[in-house]
Amino acid sequence: MDDHILVERSGPVTTVVINRPSARNACTVAMVKALHDAFMAFEADADARVAVLTGQGGSFCAGADLKELASGSALGFCWAGEDKGVTRRRLSKPVIAGISGHAVAAGLALAVWCDLRIADETAVFGVFCRRYGGPMPNGCTVRLPRLIGQSRALDMMLTGRAVDAAEAHAIGLANRVVGRGEARSQAERLAHELAGLPQVAMLSDRESLMEQWDWPEAVAIRREIGGSQAAFQQGFQSGAEGFVAGTGRHGQGVGRPPVL
pTM for the full model? Predict the structure, then answer.
C-alpha cells in the first residue's frame, strides 16, 4: 500500500484516508492505484460492511497531481480506467465520503463515486481542472448529473466554479453539512449506523436503486422485486415479529439513523 493511502479498521467499518496534506491530498497515479487496492480489499472482506473515504489535514482531495501530469508520466491514465482506476465501478457495499476542504477536479469524481457525502462547512466542490484544460475521464460526467440533475451539473462542469458546502447541500451534492473538522467523525458515525442495520434488505434496495437507471420502469420494478426475495427469506419475518413485540417502535432500538 502507498504510504499516502492509509487504511484503518473499527469493527465493520473501514476508513480509507488520503494522506498527502502538503498537496491538499492531490493524488499521483500510484496513490490512485493504492486507493483501488484498498477498496478492492474492503470489497473482498466479508466482515467489512461500510467504508469511509476521507482526507488528512483539512482537505478531501484536490484531484490529480499536476506536477506528475506536467512531466508527462501520468498522461493517458484514467481514474475510471481499467488499469486500477478507483472510480471505475461501484462496490457492492456502501462508501461514505467525509469531506473537508477541497473536493475538486478528480477529487470531485471521488466524492460522487461514494454513496453519501458528509461535508463540513469548509468543503469546496468544483471542476477546477476546467481552468487549465483538464478533462474528467473519471466517472464524474456520468455520476454528477445523476445526483444533481443535468442543468446544475452542466453549470459546474462548464464553468469550473467553486460550490461551497451550503450550495452543495441545497442542490443535493452533499447529504449533510456538519461543523468544521467533523466530517470524518460524522461519516464514521453514520457508517457504524449503517453497518448495524440488517444488511440483506439494505443492500438489495441499494442495488436496485443504483441499477434502475439501466432499465425501463417495468423491468426495473421486476428486478427490484426479484432482488428483495433474499431479504424476505433471511430475517424479515423475525424482524417484523420483533417490531410487533415492541422492538424498534417510535424510532427506538437497533438501526435508528443518526441525527447529524
Answer: 0.87
